[in-house]
Amino acid sequence: MNVLLIWPVLPNSFWSYQETLDIAGISSTNPPLGLITIAAMLPENWQIRFSDRNVQSESQDDWQWCDMVIISAMIIQKKDFCLLIEKAISLGKKVAVGGPYPTSYPEVSLKVGAHYLILDEGEYTVPMFIAALSRGEEKGVFRSSEKPDITQTPIPRFDLLNLNAYLAITVQFSRGCPFQCEFCDIINLYGRKPRTKTPEQMLVEFDVLYKLGWHRYVFVVDDNFIGNKRNAKIFLRALIPWMEQRNYPFILLTEASLNLAEDDELIELMVKAGFTLVFMGIETPDTDSLLGINKFQNTRQALIESCHKITRMGLGIMSGFIIGFDHEKAGAGERIVSFIEDAAIPQCQFSILQALKNTAMWERLNQEERLVDGLGTIHQGAIMNFVPTRPVEQIVEEYIAAFWQIYEPMPFLKRTFKHYMMMNGWRGKSSRPITATEWRLFSTLCWRQGLLRSTRFRFWWQLLTIMLLKPKLTFDYLVTLGVGEHFFHFRHEVRQQLLSQLAQIKEEEHSSVALAKF
Questions:
Q1: 105: CB partners within 8 A, 6+ apart
Q2: Is 62 exposed, middle or buried (0-12, 13-18, 19+ CB in 10 A)?
Q3: What is the pLDDT of residues 116-140, one digit of tens each?
Q4: What is the rounded CA–CA span in Å between residue 432 and residue 426?
Q5: Is the whole-model pTM more than 0.70?
Q6: Which of 139, 56, 62, 126 is nearest to 95 (CA)?
Q7: In this predicted structure, what is the pLDDT of residue 432?
Q8: What is the C-alpha to C-alpha distance for residues 191 and 183, in angstroms, rounded to an integer?
Q9: CA 326, CA 353: separation in Å to the nearest integer?
């Protein structure tokens, strides 16, 4: 069997960092970990070719060579995902699909014509798929509600990747989350009982990357790295000597819940293991909204104090914020901006609320007949796909103003400086060289932020201060400023998309009123 694995195009979004990548000469943020893990589960006698269309599109020869196309996708990739299925079918190829989007919306894949749906978690469903092929079955939908033991998950096929094309390489330690946030689909996809790999497993994966010559960012893409605190600590205690012996070859990132602030030992272990940045879903400073979405873990301690504590102990914070919760009072956008400034969080993934399929929120809104057909859950430029409890125009206008203000260059520089000046300056001793891509990014920063913009004087004195007082944080600080370049540009795109949708809504309302009068 000749199999072509394809990862569809990712549209520009919060996570794409497109402007920053263009400056640095990098193609994409992360490779598709799920797809290269599935590649490791396929029979050894299958021939495999891999195409990440965000790096380089598959060739005509690839299409002619393959017997089957396997496509994985997230919901944001749905347009290219469907086009790829249609192309494969037109060329007479068998099509198998999997990943979060087909798992949550299997009817889309079936409608477009995919032959095999490998849904849920591949450790169980890939063997079902292979067995069906061996029986000569022409179609099939393979599902399993049982959650696999991921200590048996094979090492991803990192060798299939063009490593130099990525900002960060991804690995996974755990699946699942113990919390029950109403809007989140993680517990539906992976369960509420976090499952973890063994420390030995993780170190083997790290060793494979190290031997392949990767010495940059490694993103531990768990939805909640500390979902199982006990196992996380065991892994970190094993990881620390591994990193120390190799002079900290990786810069580690991950995602975790805000209750990390309740465990000093865990924070210290993460810092000593080489973690420098953690993404946290804060969502909103409004306690009533947090309680309404069952995000109780964010109400146990003062949010700003928790953020400051984590930052002071040496972990940078990137956070998620959402506007549009039920019974949210007017001015939510301003309150979020105020919180971000007080907490001194540089990178903020700020979105309008979307109802994801199969979440508790989706089920509730469906029962209340508030879901809106035709609006997809895309990215920051999409209006909510349900009827909110306050005017949608008010929510969108607040969002546009807040997103614009958060990523105004001068406030962003001030916030970033405050963030790193607050931070403990410890970093592991590293012999990792500064790469050509990083030099390109830093030189462009000096040109844009240090000369062209009105930020020029602040840029230089802040940089000098960081270099003198927090020298080990200089690299992290400059990378964060580099990421800002993406948002300075992306906010224009978001505003235009949302204003266009608002205009369309107002036009439809006007037409409805006119028709009613007629």
A1: 75, 78, 357
A2: middle
A3: 999 999 999 999 999 999 999 999 9
A4: 16
A5: yes
A6: 139
A7: 87
A8: 14
A9: 10
